[in-house]
Amino acid sequence: MPRIAEFDGVIILMYYDDHQPPHFHVRYGSDQALIHIDPTTLAAGKLPRRVEQRVIAWATRRMAELQANWERAQHHQPLAWIEA
């Protein structure tokens, strides 16, 4: 599962050919979560509240890049790194 971003100890990952709806995975220490891209919401898992808010804010700003990576992943194309 490729890493597509990393900031403040948060690792953002996206699987190739993953199930709908478009989403990404988050790892923070021993916590893990699945975040839907649009609307940007916590769909599964658990993160500390502060980290969840930071990830949601980041994903909202980077929604177009996340959606583009989702499309690439569905077609098994290389994923782009997304800055914090």
Automatic annotation (TrEMBL):
The lineage of its organism: Bacteria, Bacillati, Chloroflexota, Chloroflexia, Chloroflexales. It holds the Pfam family DUF4160. It comes from the Bacteria. This is Transcriptional regulator. It comes from Candidatus Viridilinea mediisalina.
